[in-house]
Amino acid sequence: MPIPALAARPKQPAPEDTISSAPDVLPAASSLNLTAPVSVKYSAISSEECLLSLLPLSSSATFQSLRESLTNLNSMLPPPSLPSLPSPPSLPSTAPPSSSSSPSASWRAAERLAYTALKFLDKTRSSLIPPPSPSLSTLATILRYERSEQSLSTLRTSLMQLIGALDSRSLRSSAAAQKQALLALADVGELMVPEFPYNVPSQGREYETLPRLLGRAKVTFTVRRPSPASGRRNPALDRFVEQAFPELTELVSTFSIGRELDRYELVGNVSIVADGFTAPITAGNFVDLAQRGFYNNLPIKTRAVESTSLPILGSFNDGFVDPFTASPRLLPLEISRIDPFTREIKPVYGKEANEREQERPPLVGGKRPVVDFSIPGLVAMHHPKNNVNGASAEFFILNGDEREALSGSLAGSFAPFGYVVDGYEITQSLRAGDVITDVRVDEWGAALLKQPKETSFKAFAIRDVVDDLSGVAEDLIEDIIVVEEDMEKTR
To answer: Are residues 379 and 236 part of one domain?
Structure first.
C-alpha cells in the first residue's frame, strides 16, 4: 500500500484519538542512564535498541525524545502486536497508556505517536546537526556532515513509511519501518557525539601495533554456498593433500574457492555494525581486516565453543599475520563493563582484569559486561580455548538455540564488538563450507579507523632488536661463566 500523503489528509473535525490531534511536542524523555546490562530476550529490533542505548550521548533532549518515542511504539499496539519486540530493561518506558484497550484505538494511538515524532523531527531538525570536532580531519568533517544529512533524511522517510504501515494495520511493515527509523536515529546520534569518550590503550607490546575504531563502521559481506551442481572433487586426492601437506591444505582450499566462485550459489548479504564505542580495539581489528580483504573467499568452519560446535567465520591458519611484526596479530580480551556506582561504561582489558571484575559482586564494585549473548545478532571474537588473549580474526554469531544454551557461559569470556543489522536470517542458517565474499566497509567507518603511528612500529622493531641483542649477550655471559668454571676446575 502506498504511503499516504500527509499533506493531503482531509482537514475535517476529528475525535481525540485520530492522528490530526497529535501534538507538536513529544513527551519529555528521561535522560539516558543505564542501570543494568543490556540483556534482552529475542527481539527483532534489539540490536538497533542496543546501538541507541550504548551511545555515549545523554545531553540531547531532542534525540532522547525521538529514541523513546520509537521504542515505546511496541507497548502501544494491541495484541497480537509485535510480540517479539519488548523494550529492554535498560530503556525505561515513558509512553502514555492507551486511552482504550480496543485494537483500533491502539493502532490509532501508535500512528498518532509516529506522526508526532515526524512533526517533532521537522521542528527540531537543526538541533540534531553534529557539533564541530577539532580532532577530525577535513575529509572526516565533510563526510560527517554529509552522513548527518543523509541519516536525517532516512529517518524522516522511515517515519513516513511507519505512519503508512500503521495506517494500513500491517505488523510486518510497521516492524520493518520502525527498525529502519531506529537505525537511522542511531546514525544521527553517533554523529552527535562530540569526542570519543575515553582513551584507548596504546602503550605496551599488546596494544601499540593494534588499529582502533573511534566510532562505528558498517561492514557488509556476501555469503555463498557450494552449488549441488558444482564440479565434484576427488575425496582421495583431498585426503592425500591434507595428510602429506597439512600446512598447505587451507591455502590451496582458499585459492580454489577464489577461482570457482561461479560454482557457488548466492545465499545473501549480511551487514554488521562494528561498535568502537564498546570495543575500539576488537572492532578496529575487524574493520582493518575487512579493508585489507583478509576475509574474502574464506570458508566458514565449525569450532568448539564451550560445549557446542559453532559456525566460525574468518578462520585461516593461525589468524592474521601483521606485516609489520611478521607474527600473528593477537588481541587482548576487551569487554565493556558498567560501573555499578557511577554507571560509567568502559572496556576492561586482558584475562586477569576481566576475571577479577567477573568474580567481584556488584555490591562491592564488581563491573558486569554491559552486553551479553542473549542479544540476537550480537557478533563476538572467537579465541583459542586456552588463550582468551589470543583472538586474531575469527568471529561468530549465535543462533536462537545457541543463545538459549550458551548466553550465560560466554559473558565475560568472549569479546562482543558488533551487531547484525541486515541479513540476520542468513546468519541463522550458516554452515560449514559457506564462503564469505565481497567484503566492504562504508566510507564513514573507514575514516574512523585509526592505524598505529609509524613510530610505534619503529619502536616495536627497535625493542625486538634490543631484546635479541640482550639474549645474545646473556648467552655469551653464560658461556663465559661456564668456561671460567671449567678453567677453575683444571687448575
So the answer is: yes
What does residue 267 show for φ and ψ, rounded to 5 degrees? -95, -45
Please indicate, yes or no, if residue 371 is contained in any of the structural domains: yes
- The Cα–Cα gap between 42 and 29 comes to 25
Of 306, 285, 314, the closest CA to residue 436 belongs to: 314
Domain that holds residue 372: 212-452
Which three-class secondary structure state does DSSP give residue 296?
Answer: coil
> Domain of 317: which CATH number?
2.40.100.10
Task: Categorise residue 405: left if φ over 0, alpha if ψ from -120 to 50, beta otherwise.
Answer: alpha
Q: What cell does 240 get?
A: 592425500
By residue count, the chain amounts to 491
3-state SS class at 421: strand
Number of domains in the chain: 2
Same domain, residue pair 221 and 312: yes
Flag whether 474 is in a domain: no
- Name the DSSP class of 371: B
Residues 391 and 425 in one domain: yes
Between the two ends of the chain, the Cα-to-Cα distance in Å is 104
What pLDDT is attached to residue 58?
Answer: 74
Q: What is the DSSP letter of 411?
A: T
Inter-residue contact 418 to 216 (CB < 8 Å): no
Which CA distances in Å does 238 have to 37, 46, 261, 292, 391?
Answer: 47, 43, 19, 29, 29
273 with 51: CB under 8 angstroms?
yes
Which residue type sits at 5? Answer: A
Is the domain of 383 the same as that of 344?
yes
Q: Specify if 4 maps to a domain.
A: no
Kindly state whether residues 40 and 69 are assigned to the same domain: yes
Question: d(Cα 297, Cα 226) in Å, to the nearest integer?
Answer: 12
- Cell 558498567 belongs to 338
User: Does one domain contain both 128 and 248?
Assistant: no
pLDDT value at residue 454: 57
Residue 415: the pLDDT is: 96
Using CA atoms, how far residue 172 sits from 1, 126, 219, 282, 429, in Å, is: 13, 32, 26, 34, 21
Q: What is the mean pLDDT of each run of 10 residues along the chain (491 residues)?
A: 36 41 51 43 65 86 91 69 39 44 82 94 93 81 91 97 94 91 95 91 84 96 84 57 62 54 85 97 98 95 86 93 90 94 92 92 88 89 92 92 79 94 93 94 93 60 54 67 71 63
Q: How far apart are CA 437 and CA 265, in angstroms?
A: 12
Q: Is residue 213 within 8 Å of 283, Cβ to Cβ?
A: yes
